[in-house]
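Have a think about this chain, tokens included, and walk me through the fold.
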Amino acid sequence: MEKEKKRVAGISVVAAIFLTGFKLLIGILTGSLGILSEALHSGLDLIAAIITYFSVRISDKPADKEHHFGHGKIENFSALIETLLLIITCVWIVYEAINRLVSGNTHIQITVWSYVVVVTSIAIDVTRSRALYKVARKYNSQALEADALHFSTDIWSSVVVLIGLICANFGIYAADSIAAMGVAIIVLSVSFRLGKRAINVLLDSSPVALSEDISALIKSVPEVSYYHDLKVRVAGAYTFVNVTIHLDPDLNIRDAHRISHKVEENICKKIDRCQVQIHYEPEELQKII
């Protein structure tokens, strides 16, 4: 698992280095704010890709004396950092675009390389986002998912820049600055979703849909008459579940353990990399609680 995650994250770092350098060079040569904004976007994607690479290396380390629940939350923390980087990008793009539109300094030089860099970026971004999403879903990695989101965002922002270049080629130079602002809007939208999810995980917010799924799995075991104190927390690729179940008071401890183990197996079959802690009590205590 760790080897595949590191490999896909490492390739993404190389791709981000190439895209950042290529866009920056063409952006400087043509003076296109759209391409320069894309270069800055890719530069922050590079930082994000590096953060992701190291976070996936750390997140799979087993629990130790200081980290009883493992190191999974490093992925969520890296996703939050990536969000902040994206917001910084948006602030600069919007400021520069408005400044150019107000001053009227919107003229840019369009060359064949302007189109080459954008089309190349779209092709690479499509390839990397698909590869990252595939591994992210396979291992439930939020860090890789965040990285995939960066590359998929680049696809749409590059399309916006391409439209701006086409308009500028027909003398509508203001379209380049407007396209840059379009990039910022796209990035802000993605940043909000990514940041909200990362913060929720870091604050141990219980995923509603996941809690409902686990609740249904517990109820599917007929020997469980009642349950309460269901607590779910996520850390990186790992899910931790705590719950108290009520059983027939006449059961011996061996049968009670068998039933609780059945509940645990049902949950673990549904959720990958899940740790379940179950406390069982006699049924009559249900009336007291």
